[in-house]
Write a structure and sequence with these properties.
This protein is α/β, with parallel strands linked by helices. The protein has 8 helices and 13 strands. The protein has helices at 33-36, 50-58, 73-88, 95-99, 103-111, 134-143, 163-168, 188-198, and strands spanning 16-19, 27-30, 39-43, 63-67, 116-119, 122-124, 131-133, 149-153, 173-180, 202-209, 214-215, 218-219, 222-228. The protein has a 7-stranded mixed beta sheet. Strands 1-2 form a two-stranded antiparallel ribbon. A two-stranded parallel sheet has the order 6-7.
Length: 264
Amino acid sequence: MLPETLKPYHVHLNNLERLGDKSDGGYVIHKKSIKQSQVLVSIGLGENWSFEKDSIKHNNKIKILMFDHTVNNYFFFKRFFKDILHFFLLKKLRLKKLMNIFLYFDYLFFFKKKNVSHIKKKVGNRNVDGQISITKILKNLINKKTVSVFLKVDIEGDEYSLLNDIQRFEHSINSLIIEFHQISENNNLKKILSFVKKLKLLKIIHVHGNNIYLKKNVHDIIEITFANAKYLSFEKFKSKRSYPISQLDYPNHPRKIDKKLRFF
């Protein structure tokens, strides 16, 4: 169960849409958010950029900056041989699984686009060798007169160190997606609630439980979408919908049930 504070505000269904895969890597957003954004800052790349590919389809002028220090040639080298091994062991017989063998070529094709960049740096709260702070990223964009940023964060637990800096720049963030990990540990749920309560403009419009990892049959990873009330329209009352939402939400792990969220 999740605290009532995390229940989304009501958004009409025709103002919600899903970008990215119908599995892990896809997220529900406000329909106008990508079109109104000048830059998509995506922190955490991994092996899935389906959300970013769909973003360009919706707004071919948007600039995409993706940060991930772990994705390099060695990453793809390991991934390729793992996929080849699974193929010969008959573990990759579905079309999508077979296509993943050629993930590196999809990466090369996508990142050769002039408005897409992969910055191989870790994002944190300091500026040191191999690391850049979220403050520096957002300040640079604001200084260049970019005033509408879509921010997406999926960094496997390191997101908690960024929350204070994100809150300071919320006036320039059109929309925000954060995947919160290990919410039952280290007072992380309290950190999320504190962050949400401090926000003045960014309001929750969608939440989804990631079913890849359940702790005692309860979600320990949640995906939250925020929209800036200054730019995007939604109601000022909490939604009475049941989550997940049919035909918008899909299980991150397609062979596991997408468990219903409950609020207290």
